[in-house]
Write a structure and sequence with these properties.
Helix 4 (about 85-95) links the parallel strand 3 and strand 4 (about 95-100). The protein is globular and about 80 Å long. Helix 4 (about 85-95) packs parallel to helix 5 (about 110-120), helix 5 runs antiparallel to helix 9 and helix 7 (about 170-185) packs across helix 9 (about 305-320). The strands form 2 sheets. Strands 13-12-11-10-6-9-8-7-14 form a 9-stranded mixed beta sheet. It has about 350 residues and is an alpha/beta fold. The protein has helices at about 25-35, 50-55, 65-70, 85-95, 110-120, 135-145, 170-185, 280-295, 305-320; strands at about 15-20, 40-45, 75, 95-100, 125-130, 150-155, 190-195, 200-210, 210-220, 225-235, 235-240, 245-260, 265-275, 330. It comes from Halopiger xanaduensis (strain DSM 18323 / JCM 14033 / SH-6).
Amino acid sequence: MSTEHTETVPTTPTRAGVIGVGAMGENHARVYSELPNVDLVGVSDHDTDVATEVADEYGTEAVDLEELLDRCDVVTVAVPTHVHYDLVTTCLEEDVHVLVEKPIAETVEQGRRMAELADERDLVLQVGHIERFNPAVRTVGELIDDLDVISLEAERLGPPIDRDAPGNVIFDLMVHDVDIVGSMLEDTPDALTAMGTEDGRYATATMEYDDVVATLTASRVTQKKVRKLSVTARECFVEVDYLEQSVLIHRDSYPEYVNDEGQKRYRHESVVERPRIDNGEPLRHELESFVESVRTGTEPEVTAEDGIEALEAVQTIDGIVADDEQHAHGQELRPNERDRGEQEHDQEVEAE
């Protein structure tokens, strides 16, 4: 798809729909209903009662998939990952632009076929890596090109959201930070190591990018919700809080001993900058960007290729964690095409 504006932006409302209205999909329906020059024309879900309830809440209709695609210009696909491929392919074949929640698909090959189909039909296929649209992340993204980065460290931690629900923090949570780190460094990792628990509720990975090291931790067993990123650069140290949408930049840090009434006292001082951030809901920014790409015929901010690269990395991390013999050893990055039919789509709104 061209990255240049090739057509006049339409003045008629963009017709939007949502497929899958669980916790995440319902939020997509809410935001579409609030966006200017966008009409939420319907929602669809295998649970018709849930679909009707969400439709009533946001002033639209619950319809079957075929009718929804007849009505829509764009749709969000917010369903379990194992049905992404079939549903997204169906939408694209009906010439409907798609935002599909992360991860893009169950396998890298499925993701590539989806991307090829979207390209063949000149349609937007955007992947729902919502943290790209967090105002704090965007602020750091503007800074990082001017920094000599040494390392990045991401923590995405919290308590269980449902003790009985299946899931894997590598695919549900860590995938966000894999994508953020890759987008900031504009690169894919050369090698990585990883460790985690057998139940899939805690994992840590170290990713190597030439002369930069990124350490990522994801947890559903931590009794505090944490969403943080830190950047160590030769010029400064940057702290990002995703939840607070805040950024702190520490510069000119120095230690010294001072004389305090005859006593030697140690102190450490630094200059702390707090950049101004235009706070806002990341999901709203994400959907505004998606609709704008559709209207202008431009490449989406998070492309299918971005989603495929993130999926390759988390599959490799998961493969290392699953293999006891590899826990203590590095492994060259390679796609792991293991079938993950048991994987469930994360229903948590990560940026809230």
